[in-house]
Amino acid sequence: MSTAVILPTYNEVQNLPLLTERLFSLPIDDLKLLILDDNSPDGTGRLADELAEKYAGKIQVIHRPGKMGLGSAYITGFKEMLKTPVNFIVQMDADFSHPPEKLLEMIQTSQAADIVIGSRYVKGGGLDDKWPIWRKALSSFGNTYARVILGSRVQDMTGGFRLWKREVVEAIPLDRIYSSGYVFMVEMLYVAEKMGFKIVEVPIYFAERQYGVSKMDLSIQTEAALRVWQLRVRYKDLKAR
Questions:
Q1: Strand partners, 34
Q2: How much is the pLDDT for 147?
Q3: Rounded to whole angstroms, what are the CA distances from 28 to 186, 192, 197?
Q4: If we measure between CA atoms, which residue out of 60, 63, 62, 72 comes closest to residue 188?
Q5: What does the DSSP 8-state code read for residue 175?
Q6: Cβ(176)–Cβ(94) under 8 Å?
Q7: Per residue in 165-193, pLDDT tens?
Q8: Is-contact 6 89, C-beta < 8 A?
Q9: Tell me: domain 3-234, CATH 1.20.1250.20, correct?
Q10: What is the residue extent of each domain of the chain?
Q11: Most CB atoms within 10 A, among 27, 42, 45, 133?
C-alpha cells in the first residue's frame, strides 16, 4: 500500500527538512511526498528541490507563482496524486502542528474507515497548552459553528490532518470544490459526509509551530464563518453515492 503526503508550503525553510526526515523515518512502506510551494521568499522552494534530489524518487515538487490559497494547493495535489497508483492521500501542515508519528495510527485506522482525521476535539485530543484561553475558545467556537450549521457528526471539521482513501478522492467532484482559504477543510469534509463516506477521528495534540509565522488571522476566520452558510446552499442537492 502506497501513501502520499501533500505538503503545501509558504516560508517553511526551517521546518521542511526536519519534517521530511521525520516522515521518512516512519516504518511506512512506499511513502512519497508532494511539496507545493507558493514561491516562498525564504527559499523554501529551492530547499524542496534539494530535498527531492536527496530523496530521489520519493519527493515531487510543484512550484506555484505565488500565494494562491490552501484549497487550490490541495486540489492541485489531489489531482496530481490521482495520476499515480497511490492508495492513501494525506493532508498535513508543514510546521509540526500535526504529529508525524500519528500517521501510523491513521493508516491502521483506515481499515475501518474511508477518511481518517487527526482530531483535536475527540477524547484524548487537545490544543497547545501554551495557547491563551481566548485562542482556544476561538478555535473551538469556529469548529462548533461549522458543525452546527452543516449538521455534521464530525467533531473536528476544521483540522487539516487527514488521510483519504484513493477511491474517496476519486469520487469527490474536485472541480466543484470552490473554497480557497481554510474553509476548504470544511467544504471537503461536508461533501464527503453528504456522499456517505465513513469518517473516523483519532486524537492528536495540536502543537504550536516552533519555527516560522502562522498564516492564520482573524480575517481568514471571518471569511470561513461566512462561507460555511454558502456551503449549505451550494450542496443542498448533493446525494449519497
A1: 6, 60
A2: 93
A3: 28, 26, 25
A4: 72
A5: G
A6: no
A7: 999 999 999 999 998 777 899 999 999 99
A8: yes
A9: no
A10: 3-234
A11: 45
